[in-house]
Structures
1.
Amino acid sequence: MASEGLTGALAAVLAGQGPSVQSCDSAPAGEPPVPVRLRKNVCYVVLAVFLSEQDEVLLIQEAKRECRGSWYLPAGRMEPGETIVEALQREVKEEAGLHCEPETLLSVEERGPSWVRFVFLARPTGGILKTSKEADAESLQAAWYPRSSLPTPLRAHDILHLVELAAQYRQQARHPLILPQELPCDLVCQRLVVTFTSTQTVWVLVGTVGMPHLPVTACGLDPVEQRGGMKMAILRLLQECLTLHHLVVEIKGLLGLQHLGRDHSDGICLNVLVTVAFRSPGIQDEPPKIRGENFFWWKVTEEDLQSQLLKRLQGSSVVPVNR
Ligand SMILES: C[C@@](O)(CCOP(=O)(O)OP(=O)(O)O)CC(=O)O
Ligand SMILES: [Mg+2]
């Protein structure tokens, strides 16, 4: 992929899209990564934050034995064969009685590659709010509560931060609207936009195996990568080409997310913005040296692309992961 191909791929990723994953530049040592299968070796969860113009939050009252009567945001585990948005709409309909449309990803949480939760800001588009008369195994009821006085008990307090994220996003959108791109993927993997910046110049790490491309790292489902979280796969790829001990690596967050779900393609590709910088202060005009032939630094010279990338970097204009 000559520079115009790379330019197109980077522009697509910055727009929340991106090419489908053809291969990986880094994978866990040993066995080739096993294809992911929902409800077998990976669990994906969807969760919706509805925040009305009156600053009210939609909560559901849980019916499950282990948390019966407690309140939570509409959320649930994805089922095989559905897209992420279909899962969100199904869970909201089952638990709150409403039809909805997602507005944007607000956050992605992961406890290693086998458990990933997609948090959306969403808006109701119809349906009838579920009352206690329609209580069933999915939920006892749903109700709107002022954000300043949510009901108790809550199933878990992790939703308080998510409600806050929604309120902040409504107040000032820190990133563009980002929704999953429906593209098939067999693995849990991450496409990296690894950047090095120096006085308004930005370089991006490019993989050279095959056509030049934005590098992709496969996440392992083994206990080591589970414990370390998805950042392990990013650090593994960077260690293969950079001397990390004199660099600071920061995983900024998501630019996009690719998943299909239909036709047994349960994998996901997270498009992740990463920065590398030298630990020692002082202006370093050139990016760190790359070991081997499998990667190079591509100086982004196309003006519009460079300014888009610098803007995203300076504003941390990404979907937070585990934050
Ligand atoms: C897993 C949660 O994020 C909540 C969503 O899972 P549910 O227990 O509500 O699953 P469903 O029965 O499919 O609705 C809570 C957690 O501890 O992660
Ligand atoms: Mg649920």
2.
Amino acid sequence: MNTPLILQVNRLHKNYGATPVLRGINLDVRAGELISVIGPSGSGKSTLLRCCNRMEEASGGEILVEGHDISHARGKTLNQLRLRLGMVFQSFNLYPHLTVKGNVTLALRKVKKFDATSADQLALAALECVGMAHKADARPSQLSGGQQQRVGIARAIALEPAMILFDEPTSALDPEMVDGVLEVMRELRASGMTMMVVTHEMSFAQAASDRVIFMDQGVIVEQGTPAQIFGAPTQPRTAAFISRSAQRAGALS
Ligand SMILES: Nc1ncnc2c1ncn2[C@@H]1O[C@H](COP(=O)(O)OP(=O)(O)OP(=O)(O)O)[C@@H](O)[C@H]1O
């Protein structure tokens, strides 16, 4: 039996001015899936992610979160649906004046209205999940980039979302920090979290995803298992991208 649908994207269009950036995206995400979105720079990957939680307004189409239409929701309903989609950013977006724990409890207190004790407990549990509980009282500036990103992930987990959207979570990190963050994401996957990850880390997409989506010029060109997309792509554009990425990785190693 299929697991429940967490996210449905139907005929999604996005224009910036007269320029179409997303051109009719259709996509279903089921509970427990880890989906990697790959594709050339400018293909619309981040825009797709940002339209899902209405950080960007779509120009057309519909997005359902656990069956509820977020694309036309307003006010309290919109806020509640947004909370179901956690977001992890490339640039961490932690508040520098708050401690690690303060960053994680902020939305729990302000948005979810938890009392201080409950918010602290949830925050410490989330920090434990990403191996950062021992830094609960540190400031973000005292942490490495990889540690800051793990706090960003803890902040998302603490809100108990139905799904987490990751927008290039390792792109701003020094190479030696990347593996620790990818490991936390693998553990989250193993714990059953539903995840959609825009990534340039091809080895992660290949090894950790249930499904890989290849985008180019605002459309999904092809999607399939990592074995299909990386081993036997059916579309010439996918094959060319995979081959270029492999060459680049070879040149770097
Ligand atoms: N706020 C904006 N205003 C105008 N154009 C934008 C805006 N945001 C993105 N774009 C354009 O939309 C296109 C898709 O951008 P997007 O960031 O979604 O691509 P991407 O596939 O995530 O690229 P990358 O891998 O480089 O991050 C690009 O041509 C980009 O310049």
